[in-house]
């Protein structure tokens, strides 16, 4: 019948045992509803996308308050370079957040990543070990992308996948209203407040 299972894959972001781990800065902010403006907190993560006999890795960055996707990069490699590319692209278009949260993966504990945030005076926050819920905003977005797009279209090559992700993000950001945003789109909420912490 051509049925396929939809299930999560094992965690891709392996921590470097010798890397410096940083505290999770969002607990009180989340509990007290203090993430109340765009560019206060961004969340970043990497997900695995199976494609035919091969696979790709998607780095995505989301604004926590508005759920607006500010940056992304698709790559064949699970390393730091696509993460840096996605960040620099997001910075050039949308300025700089006060905090960026990630898991403890080696990409996010690398010198290149940590130094880039230091140079831009961005505070770095990290999930607790095996605490995916700490970065729930980006995790939920990855799930939506896969269930609503990736698993349905079963892309056969990187070009098709890249175009499909671009189209999904465009519609997600600008067309589809969100119940959690009082039925506004992420674009409307993100751009409703002219706010940038380090611009």
Characterise this structure.
The chain has 199 residues and is an alpha/beta fold. It has a domain at 27-131: Ribonuclease H-like superfamily/Ribonuclease H (Nucleotidyltransferase, domain 5, 2-Layer Sandwich), CATH 3.30.420.10. 35% of the residues lie in helices and 18% in strands. The protein contains 6 helices and 5 strands, in the order H-E-E-E-H-E-H-E-H-H-H. The protein has helices at 27-31, 80-94, 111-119, 136-153, 158-174, 186-190, and strands at residues 41-51, 54-63, 69-75, 99-102, 123-126. A 5-stranded mixed beta sheet has the order 3-2-1-4-5, sandwiched between helices. A hairpin with a 2-residue loop joins strand 1 (41-51) and strand 2 (54-63).
The counted number of beta strands is 5
Question: Beta-strand level of the residues, as a percent range?
Answer: 15-25%
In CATH, the homologous superfamily of the domain at 27-131 goes by the name: Ribonuclease H-like superfamily/Ribonuclease H
Distance between the termini: 54 Å
CATH class of the domain at 27-131: Alpha Beta
Q: How many individual helices? A: 6
Q: Could you give the order of strands across the largest sheet?
A: 3-2-1-4-5
Taking the sheet with the most strands, its summary is: 5 strands, mixed
């Amino acid at each position: 019948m051509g049925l396929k299972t939809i299930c999560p894959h094992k965690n891709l972001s392996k921590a470097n045992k010798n890397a410096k781990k940083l505290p999770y800065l969002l607990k009180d902010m989340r509990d007290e509803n203090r993430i109340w403006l765009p560019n206060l907190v961004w969340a970043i993560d990497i997900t695995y996308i199976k494609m035919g006999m091969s696979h790709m890795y998607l780095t995505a960055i989301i604004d926590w308050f508005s759920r607006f996707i500010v940056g992304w990069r698709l790559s064949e490699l699970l390393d730091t370079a696509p993460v840096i590319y996605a960040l620099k692209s997001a910075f050039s278009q949308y300025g700089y957040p006060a905090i960026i949260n990630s898991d403890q993966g080696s990409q996010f504990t690398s010198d290149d990543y940590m130094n880039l945030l230091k140079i831009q005076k961005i505070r770095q926050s990290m999930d607790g070990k095996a605490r995916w819920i700490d970065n729930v905003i980006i995790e939920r977005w990855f799930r939506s992308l896969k269930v609503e797009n990736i698993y349905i279209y079963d892309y056969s090559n990187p070009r098709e996948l890249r175009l499909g992700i671009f189209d999904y993000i465009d519609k997600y950001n600008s067309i589809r209203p969100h119940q959690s945003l009082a039925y506004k789109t992420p674009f409307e909420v993100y751009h409703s407040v002219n706010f940038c912490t380090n611009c």
